[in-house]
Records
---
Amino acid sequence: MLYLPPHFEQTNPEAVRELIAARPLGTLITLGADGLSANHVPFLLDERSGEQGRLIGHVARNNAVWHHFDASVEVLVVFQGPSAYISPNWFPTKQETHRVVPTYNYIVVHAYGPRLIHEDETWLRGIVGRLTKVMEASQPLPWKMADAPADYLHTMLTSIVGIEIPITRLIGKWKASQNRVDADRAGAAAALEAIGDDESVAMAELIRPG
Amino acid sequence: MLYLPPHFEQTNPEAVRELIAARPLGTLITLGADGLSANHVPFLLDERSGEQGRLIGHVARNNAVWHHFDASVEVLVVFQGPSAYISPNWFPTKQETHRVVPTYNYIVVHAYGPRLIHEDETWLRGIVGRLTKVMEASQPLPWKMADAPADYLHTMLTSIVGIEIPITRLIGKWKASQNRVDADRAGAAAALEAIGDDESVAMAELIRPG
């Protein structure tokens, strides 16, 4: 199991959903006859299905992940948000007590479930259409499946396999200095903002005391 | 196994090393009695040891990952670089043939190996010192272990466990539109640059034809 001290658990389902939507490229982890595997697959969280929803996506038919696996072990999909190294220098507490060590902050979502396979072209067409709509939402003129010739689309749909993971466990770990006093959180947030790259600024927003 | 078409394989060990150094927070994947687990651990690639080097890091002693595992299955550590959704709209080929579908680009490194455990304080002190030196390198006044009181440091060192993974397989997958013609690569790179966030710009640099 993921090591998850209670103060790092993200119990707000909205925050978990937002991370998957913002960083949809999941790391799909499976156990096969040759050991552990990871494949990187964009997923959509479909909440209309099951108590905790399901993840849907697709992989290349040539990717062994859909047939080469131990079905008795649930698969794990990891979604990763911003991360940042946290220096002890950034904590005012350090100046007083020096009782501080370096750490790393990050936010992640872990989803477990059985993996179902779909080879039916109608199912695949529906899933690819939904994924496309979400992914193209920010385009000025969103690409649509109908933009591609029918014969080409048919060929592409037969070269992929659908993956559906009904979620049995959905875990959010937000390691964002919640175990520090407000002054330390403010110090780390300010230091990350000063670094200024997107990841650091995103982590600063997560750390800043409310 | 990771699905890895030959044109996406990163065969330059320098590029693989650079990704681990730039994004040291690895996803440590293990198989335990309760199934698959992932934990997020900053690693250092130590190339002075073994043919492919070793990963070294540490976890909280309270993290079950170091004792609760199936030693017959090699662990897998995934390091993830920039990723970006790639719209068919960005490929000039689309205007001509419309034979293009959406995809996702990403770069990742997968490292396999057995997991060794270290509880010796001298070993831990050495590893923490090396990690600190690397992580603090960009600080104006790098924090050093000696900055912390000896009793506190001793307590901290007894609350962690060292992880060493002698690498048996090191795989780089750079999915960065290498299968597209130069005009398409240039189009996607320009579109990502226009989006302008750090991830998109980093992916644009990876895609742009040489």
---
Amino acid sequence: MRARMFTLLGTDPHSRARYGKLETPHGVVETPVFMPVGTQGSVKGVHPEELRALDAQIILGNTYHLAVRPGMEIMREAGGLHKFANWDKPILTDSGGFQVFSLGKIRKIKEEGVHFQNHVDGSPMFLGPETAMEIQAVLGSDIAMLFDECPPHPCDETYAAQSLDLTLRWARRCRDWIDANQPQTNGKPQLHFGIVQGSSYPELRARSARELVAMGFDGYAVGGVSVGEPEPEMFAAVENSEPHLPADKPRYAMGLGTPPQLIEMVARGIDMFDCVLPTRLARHSTAFTRYGSINLKNSRYTRDYAEIDEDTHPLCRGFSRAYVRHLLKAGEILGLRLISLHNLHFYLSLLSRARAAIKGGVFREFREDFISQYQTHTEPPDS
Amino acid sequence: MRARMFTLLGTDPHSRARYGKLETPHGVVETPVFMPVGTQGSVKGVHPEELRALDAQIILGNTYHLAVRPGMEIMREAGGLHKFANWDKPILTDSGGFQVFSLGKIRKIKEEGVHFQNHVDGSPMFLGPETAMEIQAVLGSDIAMLFDECPPHPCDETYAAQSLDLTLRWARRCRDWIDANQPQTNGKPQLHFGIVQGSSYPELRARSARELVAMGFDGYAVGGVSVGEPEPEMFAAVENSEPHLPADKPRYAMGLGTPPQLIEMVARGIDMFDCVLPTRLARHSTAFTRYGSINLKNSRYTRDYAEIDEDTHPLCRGFSRAYVRHLLKAGEILGLRLISLHNLHFYLSLLSRARAAIKGGVFREFREDFISQYQTHTEPPDS
């Protein structure tokens, strides 16, 4: 029997929010937690030293992207993703399932897995449960995700049920591969998370969760969310999954979301998040503030000599909005870098403050204050 | 009478190389020194914290670029370039002369200055001796350069002589503007450097130097080099200027050069350098090593797990050539950042080692070793 890897340290009396700690082969992660996304082995625009300065506890890597480029021969020779990317803290890798469906071309879903052409050079590739687990073992991530089919939105119930059946058969094969191979990283057992699917159908979500739990994994994710569905459906998918997941295992909502969505998900019992928004919106000149997001390319900031936000990271201190706007207009990379750092700080500290609020017994107030202050559209269009 | 700003601390017995220290309003600069170029108020791809980590003593800003964008109204409101760019160490600004001639469109050179259209939005602009000095006073640089005409290469002697006469009349007007306005930065007098012109004509170079020295400036630059002339002409331009410059003032060779050229210029009595090569070549995937430059996009580095170079900066340690190549191929900004940091470290430490060698009485050996080891083209074309 394995030692306990997740410790639930406390819960909020007014919601399903909780805080805990997750022990991984490369260190402890305090939850709830935000995981910056390093798709191609680099969190876009950010140096690992900066991630450390931002107190990032764990980052995400993408199996699909890394298998396509640089490819597994190099990842194996390099000694895994930690060494390749010069990052010695925890890493979670997705299984590639989602990307196969969103990026791969001419894909054929078969019982054994998915045949597709990759998006970089069109080469034929194959990902199935065993290959996805093997790749993640080579990457040496601390947390590997099971290989699943992520159905599109909308999706009729018949297809959703068939897709779920396939995902559960694949989960069984992942379980068998893990048991047979017992992959390790940093000399300790790699963790494996199942992914709850079932689209917008409560019974399918419940069945998915129950069957995965019966197989026994180290944590459980809610997948098939943030695929274009309206926000209430996204919340419902989590609400329909979470009650069927064991309290003593971490829960991860994949690929979410806006700052208020993250807090709402914490209130629904989710512990872990990843999202490309902080770095992707930075590339569109957009910075997060507690009052909503602002676009620093707007002419209103031309002569605004305040910092990006009152609450920002020391690495962004001393730079005015006017300066950042100048950098963006002039095409200087530092502008993008400063917003990326600021946005990652915003997301990381948001989850860290949520954790402190749960621990301090004031999560209800924290949630209400944050949601009421945050406006999705504060900023009128630029003149 | 002003206090001495430059102190010549020692000379090399076998060449004209020297080391010294230059006191500026924002701190002391030890020479010989390399100055990273921050054209638009940012050293491309690099955060000021990284410049500090690299031990950059002084950076360069461009009058022309900053006057075009963000414009002087913002530079004035922002409180000058140091505050705007969040950099509290010394800054040298060029006068805009070189850029007017290389970037400006439909330019008309008149006695009062140069009328031109800027390269960003084509707006009509004017730069003359007084405006260039006034702009640099607003930028608050520690060292401001005189406004000059930089003749093209090749240039016949008649035009070169006429151009030099104009540059000397402009120098006189700069001197008068400085005396009348006595610009300060950080509460201390701004320094002003004259620029020796005269193309490839020894007598013109000598006359230019003598007349500028007679007007009296805080330092002297050799301009009109690295404008497309063959390397021997570049060396000759410096050799024909330097003997006419006072030993107790700093000398600056503008816009140079390759690593061996820098060492050769140090041997010819030059103290200060600026060059875009470290960051520009980084954007072309090229890294400097003691054996010459290498292009990290080349397929030979696909499975090269050594670091960028044995001698690199701590911020570049732990990243393999294979990883940097992967980042470059994948279009990840971190690849460009790592090479920029490495190249700036290479240039900064090259000058710092040259200084130590002069001080230690071993500059002749240092020069010979470095030049003989460094190959301009080590690397065969990629297969």
